[in-house]
Amino acid sequence: MNHEEQLIRYAANQLNESEHVDFEKHLAGCASCQADLILWKSLANEVIASDSAVPAPVHLVDSALEVIHAPSKLTRAFKSTAQLLRMQLLLMHNELWFGSAALMFIFLAMALLVARVEVLHFFVPMIAAGTVTLIYGSEHDPAAELTFATPISPWKILLARLTLVSAYNVFLALCATVGLLLILPPQALGELILGWLAPMTFLSALALLLSLWIGTSNALFISYTLWAAQYLAWTSIGEWFAFLSPWLESYRQFWNDPVLLFLLGFALILFALWSAGHEQVQWHRSVVL
Amino acid sequence: MRTDLALPWQTQATMKQPVDDLDLIRRMQAGDDNAVRDLYAQYGQRLYAYALRLTNDPATAEDLTQSTLVTAWRTARNFRGEGRLIAWLLGIVHHAAMKSLRGITNYLDEVAEETVSEDQPSPEEQAQVRDERRWVRQGIQSLSPEHRAVLDLIFYQGLSLNEAAQVLNIPVGTVKSRLSYARDHLRGVLTRTEER
Lengths: 289, 196
Description:
The structure holds two protein chains of two kinds.
Chain A: H1 3-11, H2 17-28, H3 31-52, H4 60-69, H5 73-91, H6 94-114, H7 117-132, H8 144-149, H9 154-180, H10 189-214, H11 216-229, H12 234-237, H13 245-255, H14 258-276, H15 283-288
Helix pairs in contact in A: 1-3, 5-9, 6-7, 6-9, 7-9, 7-10, 7-11, 9-10, 9-14, 10-11, 10-14
Chain B: H1 8-15, H2 21-29, H3 33-55, H4 58-74, H5 85-101, H6 105-118, H7 123-126, H8 132-141, H9 145-156, H10 161-168, H11 172-195
């Protein structure tokens, strides 16, 4: 151990008895160490004096305990999400819930009467697309001004409403599908669900995005037309529609490709959420203004 | 003859019944709120003083001390009793302080350097311009947080060079070189003062 290190430990009172005695012997004959010791003691005295002059605030331990016992981030996030969903549930039109349930019941009854599952496959995506066009914007929200004045981002409000309506639509569609088991074997359940789930996702996402951009009426017209076009027998309308046949086949395949429909559907939802915070892309609102 | 430096927290500890470090940790692991209160009573002053020494800002020092208590509570199981509890706690303060100081360290240093070299004392202060203690204080304040930390750990907290190195997460050689730098810096400040 060199003298400089010993000097520091001496100034800090960290030498043991024998080291202390030995170093004092050295110190007595070393002018350089004596000069440095004055400096180190000045430093040490000042550090001790200034540190001792600042009493630690007594309230810190209580505030630390408050933080310790505060709910975790996950719990807080869960609570705020539940609160947002509950708030949006109260703000949305009640007719939306009753209307879609009534329509679903009617089309289930129709499917059972004619014993055709295609009835449900055709109408379930349309019901879902119709309801999502009614969830956002001043056209359908009586408390729109209040909603947009809150610090919650528009995309979070839209996502909360979309989650509520989509969950409800899936629930209704599942109930209707279970109802179809009256005329079909239980083994067909999975295939029945897949028959409407992917088209419902894509058509709803498309209708939602269009409703944000060009308004509910236009969104409904375009999305329903695109959906229904695959079912039309175009050649029976006129022979000159024959040139559409190869293209129509690809178009029908598109609506029967669940992976593609899910991917595009989620992409459109992300685009719709982004659009919610950008009024400049919501053309129908600009026109109204 | 021992040097006459007396650490206030050592005096206080002799007046009160000292709390066993491992017992404190065990109680925190068991979820005993009073363990945090005892920990603060035992070490709060030293933690706050260290945080203030690093940041020069009472509000930030309070935040750091509070977050250290919270971190100690949440990570009590990580303390294995291989070193002293105070060294572990000071390491938490130091890590948090360096995170919060990142980005403003240069600014603080520049301000402090200017304070020492350019600051002209007021007429009242000119009467005390030879007051060595005042210049020592300013000399310490003009050091970077890293250098102030080493001085505090050795002289106020009573840590050994090895313990200081562990708290700062640096080699012992770097602790020594920082001490030498602090001494030379202070010597320079005092020399400039005497020349005025």
